[in-house]
Amino acid sequence: MSLKGKIAVVTGASRGVGKGIAVSLAEAGALVYITGRTIIEGESASKLAGTIYQTQEQIKSKGGDCIALPCDHDDDEQVKAVFDLILKDNNQIDILVNNVWGGYEHFTNGTQFWNESGFWETPISRWDLMFNVGARAHFYSSCMAIPQMIKNNDGLIVNLSFHAADCDDQGVAYAASKAASNRMSSSMAYELKLNNISVISLYPGVVRTEAVLAAAEHMDLSNSESPEFVGRAIAALAGDKNVFEKSGRVLRTADLAIEYGFTDTDGKRPIPLPL
Q1: pTM (predicted TM-score)
Q2: What's the rounded mean pLDDT across residues 35-58?
């Protein structure tokens, strides 16, 4: 699944799923541009380790190509500047992975969400973060990339989502924001069906991110996946000449592993869970 010559953009890649996706796309040969707010260790909104420059250095240390660009996706001018720079240097964006998400602030905004009895006790800022630096951020980044993709008559956009979109017990704001991403993806796919641009919503399983590993004692990780596994799923999609047939759909990483024949970094293949 060589992606040599491809230009990929991964938003929100200081750590976690975004970092894993960037690593895997670079391993497949793509030049990967990554964005994120964290440029100094320990200053992330989530209070988790990792910066965009650490991601960049990890990729380069393994022989990959990566360029880190600081960007707050809650600021349209910063987002536009990032895409203007990428397009000025390359005149192409082949793969856009909309991973950035503002929901982690609900760990640090003074409210212990696990002690709330219902959505009516949650701060409205949680809704705003999950939508503004979630669905809206995905929408705006796509708007920045799509005109060039149309010119090149080719492109893949992957919007990271989660099965919470199909559940009633995952929190109102969280479920609504992920459901919005799914509908956005299918509607984008409909409008781009004549331009050979594929738009897909992707559901990871339980991913061993820094946040999840910090709470590992309270979780069952026996069927979990690494952040790089999510990236391998996207690399497989990007390398599939028939990926347009999947446009508009919601796909799961574990299903794609079976279809394309890849495994996780530990050689295992997580079992797809029922929705």
Answers
A1: 0.94
A2: 87
